[in-house]
Amino acid sequence: MKNKWIMATLTAIVTFLCACEKDEGILPEISFKTATNYVSTDATLPAGTDVVIGITASKTEDKDVLKKFNISKSVDGGTASTVYTQDLSGSDGDNFEYDYSAKVEGLSGQTSTFTFTVTNRDGLVNQVALTLTVE
User: What's the start-to-end Cα distance of the chain, in Å?
Assistant: First the structure.
């Protein structure tokens, strides 16, 4: 009787484990918007120029929705600091778009690197970055 109970328990455990959905661990998608009014690649521009950097992001697996969006900025290769962050939920967890407005700042030759990061439910992170150089 004891052996039958052990076999039934093991069978139930194996069945449960096999029935669980496999998570492929695919990174969320993120890319720059490339329309003419957006900066989407590294650029050298005069100080004071207003720019718009846009991104689109989406989940890549049904249940692994987007949970967080972050923009950080690093000047001349220094430590990056967060300039914007947003928790995502609802329809933003499936597909998200954001336009970030910035002004090219600094002295001639100074660089600012902007990194745009999305994180999904599983904690997987994907990012895109571009550098603006003062002319």
Answer: 83
CATH class in words for 26-134? mainly beta
pLDDT tens sequence across 51-102: 999 999 999 999 999 999 999 999 999 999 999 999 999 999 999 999 999 9
Contact between 42 and 133 under an 8 Å Cβ cutoff? The reply is: yes
| Overall size of the chain counted in residues | 135
Above 80 in pLDDT, residue 24? Answer: no
8 Å CB contact between 99 and 57: no
111-120 and 125-134 beta bridge pairing: antiparallel
For residue 14, give the H/E element and its range. Answer: helix 2-19
Whether the full predicted model's pTM is greater than 0.85, yes or no, is: no
Residues 6 or more apart whose Cβ sits within 8 Å of residue 98:
54, 55, 69, 86, 116
